[in-house]
Amino acid sequence: MSKTVLVSGGAGFIGSHVTVELAQAGYDVVIADNFSNCDETNYRGVCKILGKELPMVPMDFCEKASVYSLFEKYPIDAVIHFAAFKAVGESVAEPLKYYRNNLLSFLNILDAAKHNGGCNVLFSSSATVYGETEDLPVTEQSPRQPAKSPYGNTKTMCEDILRDSVQAYPGIKGIALRYFNPIGAHPSALIGELPRGVPNNLVPFITQTAIGKRACLYVFGNDYPTPDGTCLRDFIDIVDLAKAHVSAVTRMCAERMKEEYEIFNIGTGRPVSVLELINTFERVNGVKLNWKFAPRRAGDVVSIWADPTLAGKELGWHAERGLDETLKAAWEWEKHLAGI
Ligand code: WQD
To answer: How many A from CA of 254 to the centre of ligand 1?
Structure first.
């Protein structure tokens, strides 16, 4: 019998790609989203890719009663939790909004899981929990550092909440996936990243500059202690990232976990500089970007990339798509949005 996976925040960038991969792997997916940070574009794209309508529950995970009724209505074998605020800068300006939303939604899910006798819970964590470190690449054993933003703190806190819940409540099992920098879009160009307002992240800023929505791309800092003076990141293709979730859910549902709470880095293991990313985008898409150097951005770490060995060994997962392919997909998505 097929398993049912609840995807909170399933209409968002990562959630929509994960939904597609899960459904294509044979899972029954229930999407729930409050559309606070997205519209229905990605949900419609998901249905088009799959050629069928998926159950979509418009709801807020901060409302406990709604979360309980969701767990009553569907036979949920696993939940993947994406429904959270994610703007680093905004979280510094409005910490209470971030702590309330990101913690309460997760507490409600765990409460409902406990109430139902347990559940497999996959939490979308982030490389941000490693903070600034010179010990690179980072493994899952690398120490976590105090986060530089309330957003980052909520990731660390939710990891701990999951770990403690797994320990205390029989039947709850947990996996935290620590994403590096997810970029790109589905090869169909029907789903992708849809930032509201001015993008904070590099790739949407690049594609919006290329399409003419932004006049100039600013590269934050050219004097970092890196080969070309710009920051190094581990850019992971969104479809590859989504597939890691299928592997993790399958591991949980098939009861193949070695511990009841596990953590995996999800990255390529390859550091790429901001300039290298820009140059690659220009080359593979045949476009010229208007960019210039600007001062460093507060809160940026110099370099971070993953040691993804554990995910390879335990999940059988490896990043497969190359940077060229990923950046072509990101551009196709931006053109799709512009109707080109
Ligand atoms: C990457 C590099 C910038 C924009 C953040 C969160 C992380 C995760 C992903 C998501 C940096 C540089 C960027 C621009 C630039 N969370 N840059 N010009 O900061 O590594 O990670 O997003 O929800 O938790 O912290 O990603 O894409 O913002 O930046 O030069 O206009 O690109 O300085 O070196 P980051 P990013």
So the answer is: 35
Distance CA 17, CA 11 (A): 9
**How close is the Cα of 220 to the center of ligand 1, in Å?**
10
Contact 31, 55 (CB under 8 A): yes
Between the CA of 202 and the centroid of ligand 1 the distance, in Å, is 6
Q: How far is residue 285 from each of residues 113, 204, 258, 272, 319, measured CA to CA in Å?
A: 46, 15, 43, 18, 22
pLDDT of 86-105, one tens digit each? 999 999 999 999 999 999 99
Nearest partner of 23 among 40, 41, 46, judged by Cα: 46
- Interhelix angle for 13-24 vs 41-50, to 10°? 20
From residue 29, alpha-carbon distances to 8, 21, 86, 182 in Å are 10, 10, 23, 22
Query: Could you tell me which residues come within 8 angstroms of residue 238 by beta carbon, excluding any fewer than 6 positions away?
Result: 13, 14, 17, 182, 183, 184, 185, 186, 192, 193, 326
pLDDT in tens, 106-133: 999 999 999 999 999 999 999 999 999 9
Token readout for 319 is: 């990043």
Place 59 in a pLDDT band, splitting at 50, 70 and 90.
very high
Pocket residues: Cβ below 6 A from ligand 1: 86, 88, 126, 128, 181, 200-202, 205, 217-220, 231, 233, 274, 297, 300
- 135-177 pLDDT, tens digit per residue, is 999 999 999 998 889 999 999 999 999 999 999 999 999 999 9
**Tokens 């976990």, located at residue:** 257
Rg of the Cα atoms in the chain: 19
Q: State which amino acid sits at residue 182.
A: P
Catalytic residue numbers? 151
Task: Work out which ligand 1 atom sits closest to the CA atom of 152.
Answer: 24
